[in-house]
Design a protein that fits this description.
The protein is built from 19 helices and eleven strands. The protein is α/β, with parallel strands linked by helices and 470 residues long. It is found in: Membrane.
């Protein structure tokens, strides 16, 4: 039984080992259950397709075969489309079990797969209804759009989804500001809302039995309800209840700013060090767009601090905020927190402004002197030097700044590590394979660090990453 206590656990007299084991078991159960439910849903709709003669229809001619394939791809696409909405609905069990980065990756895979299936559904249904005759495709398309209930809406929804998918391709994302990409991405909800009604109104696979009707309407209502509750109502209630306002703005460096916030009953906000908020500052034009900002100090129940680098419109306006500015927020979100911890000893690694949640973790997590090592990668001057010095003196945190430009394209630690970065990592942290690693920074950099940690023998489930990619 460990004597190491977290602040919340210490108040309740619960050993950290017990709490961590309970959190880990619950998160594993949620991940396993979520995967099983995903596959169960796909198997269920496939079973209904088979029961309706879907396999038999494949062998009776090109027209019926194409229509049958169209029905199946439509079922799979609709199911995955609603799963995709649930993944991004901010459901607490999913957020806690997977974390934002992992959910984003799953969301991306499910989204592209659902879109590909939707395209296959459209093409094969039109081909089947056209009697597998290319000459009949234009007339059949026009007939479907103008005479079948909901199909015209689904065309509009498909256009919205095409726009979202195109702007989600990496090359396209690089050409967009985060704010523009985020606004365009919201059209996914409109696309889902317009694409599904024709299936619920006229699709025989949705209407042939009470069980099917309940399944599809239940899944649709669950997706819409989750978004409404967790992405609209709860953030609004929390914003009104806690009344966050800006108290001060501090310039940490030439392009990095910290914003201090205060409000009511912040001790009742379910926040942990290392998490982030989606924030809207009510200071004029642009207030409707939220931006994610990490907590750069451990929550103390009285105030919050976020820190960001001026990279886009949202972060660039922070230095111009005035004390008293009101704040709307969503969250806190993120698994880069004590919830992901399963080991006593820690390695905390941050690059650039990615040091913000790492600095928060260094303050908020419990550890014995010497059990936590913090590596800060920076091109120029490191951030929070004096604050980390205090943690080193008072908590026994071991810190190492890694300034300078990268020595090669694969370098992650810079010139101080020398040509053999794996050897350098093992010299700095000899027992790295036995530690939990909390990692934050740009996506390309975190990918490189993860590869290096794998070479050092760190199990993948010991590494907890939050990247700044979108």
């Amino acid at each position: 039984m460990t004597a190491l206590l977290s602040r919340s656990a210490a108040d309740e007299g619960v050993p950290t080992r017990v709490r961590l084991d309970a959190d880990a078991a619950l998160d594993r159960a949620v991940r396993t259950t979520g995967g099983l439910l995903l596959w169960a849903g796909l198997l269920l709709v496939t079973y209904w397709w088979v029961a309706d003669g879907g396999v038999t229809d494949l062998t009776t001619g090109w027209a019926t075969g194409l229509t049958s394939v169209g029905r199946l791809t439509g079922l799979w696409s609709a199911d995955l489309l609603l799963v995709q909405v649930l993944l991004m609905s901010r459901l607490p069990p999913l957020e806690n079990a997977f974390g934002r980065d992992r959910l984003n990756r799953i969301h991306r895979v499910v989204g592209f797969l659902s879109f590909d299936l939707m395209c296959a559904h459209v093409l094969t249904i039109i081909g089947g209804y056209a009697g597998a005759s290319w000459s009949q495709v234009p007339a059949t398309t026009w007939e479907l759009v103008t005479t079948y209930a909901g199909v015209l809406l689904s065309v509009a929804g498909t256009v919205c989804l095409v726009m979202v998918v195109v702007t989600s391709v990496k090359k396209a994302r690089r050409r967009l500001r985060y704010e523009s990409w985020h606004l365009l991405h919201l059209y996914a909800y409109l696309g889902v809302g317009l694409a599904l009604p024709h299936q619920l109104w006229t699709g025989q696979e949705f209407l042939l039995s009470t069980g099917r009707t309940l399944y599809w309407w239940g899944l649709w209502i669950a997706a819409a309800g989750a978004v409404l509750v967790w992405r609209v109502l709860l953030p609004l209630v929390r914003s009104l209840r806690h009344g966050l306002r800006v108290t001060s703005v501090v310039q940490e460096s030439s392009d990095v700013v910290s914003v201090y916030l205060t409000g009511r009953h912040l001790d009742r906000l379910p926040q942990r060090a290392g998490q982030f908020l989606n924030v809207r500052f009510l200071d004029g034009p642009g207030w409707t767009r939220s931006n994610p900002f990490s907590l750069s100090a451990a929550p103390d129940g009285r105030s919050l601090r976020i820190t960001a680098k001026a990279l886009g419109d949202g972060s660039g306006r922070l230095s111009r905020l005035r004390p008293g500015t009101r704040v709307l927020f969503e969250g806190p979100y993120g698994r880069l927190s004590s919830r992901a911890r399963t080991r006593h000893r820690l390695l905390l690694v941050g690059a650039g402004v990615g040091i913000t949640p790492i600095r928060s973790l260094a303050e908020g997590l419990d550890y014995a002197p010497g059990d936590a090592v913090l590596l800060q990668r920076c091109t120029d001057e490191p951030l929070f030097v004096s604050e980390l010095d205090v943690l080193a003196r008072e908590r026994g945190l071991q810190t190492l700044a890694l300034p300078g430009r990268r020595t090669s394209a694969r370098s992650v630690f810079g010139p101080l590590a020398g040509p053999d970065e794996l050897a350098a990592l093992r010299q700095w942290v000899p027992d790295v394979a036995e530690r939990n690693v909390f990692l934050c920074g740009p996506t390309a950099w975190t990918d490189g660090v993860e590869r290096l940690l794998a070479e050092a023998g760190v199990p993948a489930d010991h590494v907890h990453t939050e990247s700044f990619g979108w």
